[in-house]
Structures are given as C-alpha cells and as structure tokens.
Design brief:
This protein is an alpha/beta fold. Helices cover about 35% and strands about 15% of the residues.
Amino acid sequence: FTGGSGQKLPTLITFTRYKRNRYLRFPWTYIGMFGDVPRPTFSVVLAKFIRVITPRGYVHVGVDVRGTGASFGNRSVDLSSAEIADFSEVLEWVKQQAWSNGRVGATGVSYDGITAAMLAAQGGLDAAGILFSPVHFAEDILVPGGVLNIGFTNTYSVFVKAQESNR
C-alpha cells in the first residue's frame, strides 16, 4: 500500500507466515466497526499498521513467506535457508520500484519480527522494528505455573498446519 501519493517514499516490509490476506467471515466481518479494514480479505493486524504508517509517508509491502498464504514454494521448516534468501530478493525488488526512494525498513512481532531480524542480519536494510514476543512464551503460554499447556500446543499446531496449507 502506497497511500496513493505518487511520490518516491520509504518502505516498511512485513514478512509473515500467517497469511497477509485472509477472508473474514461472520462474526469477524464486524471488526470494521472498530476501524476500517481495507477489504474483507485483509489481515486486521496489518490493516491497523498500514492505517498508521501510510498517512505518514511510508509504503507498506506485506509478503507471505515461501510456501504460505499466496506465496509459491514449499515449506519444510521455519526460516529455511531458501526462505531467508527470499528476504533479500524482496528487499532488492522493493528498492527498484518506481514508488521506492530506496530506504527500506522491516518490522514485525513474533515470527514476523524474527524475519525482520534475519533480513537485517543480511545487510542492506535501513531500519528494523522488532518485537519478538509480547509475552514470555514458556512461562506465560507453554508451561504456565509449571503445567504443560497441551491445549495450546495442540491447537496452535493445527492452526499453523492449516495456515500453511491455505485452509
């Protein structure tokens, strides 16, 4: 999303495995009551982010990582060498676009933040805004109070498999 200004602007990239686009069905379609969602197949999280950055003169590029969402390829493991190489390829593509001024940052939370860190480690990025997790994964989610949260791990496994299978 460029915000429609027509001028060369800095860009923020978000790489995600959680589908940058998803179709919202009832009752989730009512989420628009709390702010505009660009279209019914748009990530609500990215919509909020875009609504903040584009009026401030930034372009946003949302990318489904290899083998997820609308992306091609296969996914054998998170952050494979092929997936990490894709980050630099996208970075170079963004820098060559007519709407890009060549200054590019990457951002994300959790897995998306890790992808931003991996891109930053390769060089060529002007900035990275990263939050790995807003919670302590082991203490707050996986083993709260010292008890293994099997419900979370099983549900999350099903969720990730469905996301990566485009279901």
